Amino acid sequence: METMVYRKSSATSEIMKKLDESRRHLRTGNLFSCIVTLRDVLDAFLHDASIDQADRSKITSSLNHYQQQIATAAQFRDLYGMFTFRDSDFTTTYDFLGQLITIKEDEIASVLIGKDVKNILNLESLDSVDQQTAKTMLAMVERGEQMVLRELVAANDNIATLVLSYYNEMGIGYRLSGDTDKAIQEYKKALSISPDDENLFYNLARVYIEIGNKKKAEECIGRALKLNPDFIEGFKLQNYINNWTP
Description:
246 residues
């Protein structure tokens, strides 16, 4: 969407700059930063009385359009589920975004102190620098900060393997307990760390089989085999899916 320029009010100009910043975060996959920046935009828009009515109407239109972009973004739905923003109801949106930010911070905190997580990651065996790197990587996954996450993973293969194992184990655990929605979420988080891992797509395909979604199962096993044409277990599962009637 083309950037809109306003000259009447410095407040309006600052709001549009921040809105463009939020759009950039969404385009680059930094969802948490996108949400935080949008909340700053709404805070200024709701509380600054210097914005005249003409500018207010134009900003309202831009905000309504952008809300729908966020709601339909695959990454938003993967992390936060289905949600529909109501046009021009920016007070509700402001409060909702605040809840998302708080929820994600709480989730990160619980991840970092959980005994099971520490055992899976074997944090005690790491030095203080690697422990902090692992925690930061977890936080970036939970926040959906793809750009920073990719840089961390590229520079810390060994830590990425540990964090990947955590999300994969979580996915397996949820699948075995029957919580398929959470299993899918955890596998997708694992894929944000290692998007070329055929085993993760294989695991996702198994979950989709369990919930009767043949199309998604076919897509996932197809991705797995494209990544690894010699994936024997993948071919076996693909044959099963091809002959399977949900």
